[in-house]
Amino acid sequence: MSGLDELYREVILDHYRNPRRRGTLSGDYIHAEGNNPSCGDEFFLDIEVSGDTITDAAMQGYGCSISQASGSMMMDKIVGMPMSDLRELIHNFKLMMSIEEGDSPVDEDRPGSVLGDLEALQGVRKFPVRIKCADLPWATLTDALDQVSG
Amino acid sequence: MIDLRSLRSDFPILDREVNGTRLVYLDSAATTQKPQSVLDAMDDYYRLHNSNVHRGAHTLAAEATEMYEAARGRVAGFIGAQPNDLVFVRGATTGINFIAYGWGLNHLKAGDKIIVTIMEHHANIVPWQLVSRITGAELVYLELNEDYTVDTSSLEGILDDKVKIISFSGMSNVTGALGPIKVLSDAARSVGAISVVDAAQLVPHTAVDVTDIDIDFLAFSAHKMLGPTGIGALWGKTERLEEMEPTEGGGEMINTVDRHESTWAPVPHKFEAGTPPIAEAIGFGAAIEYLEAVGMDVIEAHERELTAYALERLSEVPDLTIYGPKDVTLRGGAISFELGDIHPHDIATILDQDGIAVRAGHHCAKPLMQYLEIPATARASFYLYNVFEDVDALVVSLHKARELFGLT
Questions:
Q1: Which residues 3-62 in chain A show a CB within 8 A of chain B?
Q2: What is the DSSP letter of B385?
Q3: Residue B174 with chain A: CB contacts under 8 Å
Q4: Phi, psi of B214 (to 5 degrees)
Q5: CATH 3.40.640.10 in chain B, residues?
Q6: Which residues of B are catalytic, by number?
Q7: Which residues numbered 101-140 in A keep a CB inside 8 Å of some CB on B?
Q8: pLDDT beyond 80 at B51
Q9: pLDDT of A105 above 80
Q10: What is the pLDDT of residues A56-67, one digit of tens each?
Q11: Which residues of B touch A123 (CB under 8 A)?
């Protein structure tokens, strides 16, 4: 597979064109905003937290296929997930993107260790300037989680 | 047809490959490549003449000073100016900041107006916002006509004696549209305001003679015209430069310094505090020499042919929208476009795999993007070393992008 085919997998284009959970939440929720000033990409995230779990989430934003698909795939993954697993999921995503270092073996008992569909984004690694695109939603999620635990 | 193909061998970087293919460099509006003569001039200075300028009685100091001032003379001559009216600055951005702070601060008061256009680069917006914040002056925008040229008809409602500065781009780095220099400089003069031309995209691509156009200030950057980064020029009418306060204080810009007061060196040195970028100035001079040897009329004609060809070829690509004048007499060679729902960054990544360098994003012109209601564009831009095959390569790669994204 060529680098470009690996980057623009069908599942990525599908999430880009049909983003999941697009919109905003109402009621009691946490809001976080992320942007990459150099390219203008934006990502807005609302999460509803009940106890230790994200019970609902919505996103808005604009940007390239990588940032928006990464966000859409993230939305698919995070609802229903406990906070501790979320931190692990973020870490695992950043490991895949070579943003963080370490080792985190997959364990089906720990949902945060399973990237699933998100693995479609590993082609981004070959395009270092695009890693920050893929990371934008995750940085925004980290900001939202920090507000919860803050 | 003008063929400047033989010049390509003067530019070492054009020989290299990118991602396994020939480099197709279509990002000259961001920065241009450098000919060997510019690299040699800077190298020669460091190897044989390196010394600080304007002080020291030794031979090297005299040589460095002579080379630095000769470069000033060459850059000034290129725009028909006197050397003493040309200030070496870091680039067009610094030039405009110097005008905003050095002239704007002591000539603007609350209620005054600064007119700019909606097609400005941030470099010609943010300095005026900063100065407006201090002085209470108001920033007023001229908008665009259907063909992306500046709509000067709205001047009528804005123009009065509150207007102190009209500052505008000579050529848009996004749409390629030429600025209405005569209309806006006449308008400024009619109400006693000054006119400032952001010529970062203009001077590299077309012959400019400041004795032909009656403006007050002009700023441009060396790196957009074959020269090095870190240096540019601010030209001003002698009396405007006399009125302007130095924005930076330090060595080399003074006449006398006492404990609490100082007086300034004469123009242009009062604006050149500290050790200047000497090698860069010399490289700038060598770039001008190169451009003069080719001829600005030849360069302009060549780019116009390339631009016309590119506009025609790009219009054949389905789903492609061009943001800029269609008429090549109204524009330069920066072409912004969108391709269906493919984000410009994705376009740039795909083209890069074919060795094609284009720009993607808001091009430091966010107010223009908001006005056009688009978040970003991809931009191809040309210079003297580009050839028709570069346009062909671009078109082939854009078709590939459509295929990859499943556009039919």
A1: 3-5, 7-8, 13, 17, 38-41, 62
A2: T
A3: none
A4: -90, 80
A5: 39-292
A6: 364
A7: 127, 129-130, 133
A8: yes
A9: no
A10: 999 999 999 999
A11: none
d(CA B56, CA B51): 9
Q: How far is B363 from chain A (nearest CA, A)?
A: 9
- Contact state of B343 with A63 under an 8 Å Cβ cutoff: yes
Tokens of residue B322, six digits: 């061009």
Contact between B376 and A39 using a beta-carbon 8 Å cutoff: yes
Quick: pLDDT tens for A62-96.
999 999 999 999 999 999 999 889 999 999 999 99
Chain B, residues 349-408, CB within 8 A of chain A, namely 349-350, 353, 360-362, 366, 369, 375-376, 404-406
B-chain residues within 8 Å CB-CB of A2?
Answer: 353
Helix, strand, coil proportions of chain A in percent (round to 5)?
50, 20, 30
Residue whose tokens read 């060529």: A2
CA A63 to chain B, closest CA, distance in angstroms equals 7
CATH fold of A3-149: Sufe protein. Chain: A (3.90.1010)
Q: Are A48 and A57 in contact (CB under 8 A)?
A: yes
* Domains in chain A: boundaries: 3-149
CATH 3.90.1150.10 domain locations along chain B: 5-27+295-404
> CA of B93 to nearest chain A CA: how many angstroms apart?
17
Tokens 């779990």, located at residue: A53
Average pLDDT over residues B74-87: 98
- Name the closest residue on chain B to residue A128, using Cα atoms: B349
CATH tag, B39-292: 3.40.640.10
**Cα–Cα distance, B329 to B343 (Å, whole number):** 29
- pLDDT tens digits for range B348-372: 999 999 999 999 999 999 999 999 9
Give the phi and the psi of residue A57 in degrees, each rounded to 5: -155, 150
Select B5-27+295-404's CATH number: 3.40.50.300, 3.40.1400.10, 3.40.50.11540, 3.90.1150.10: 3.90.1150.10
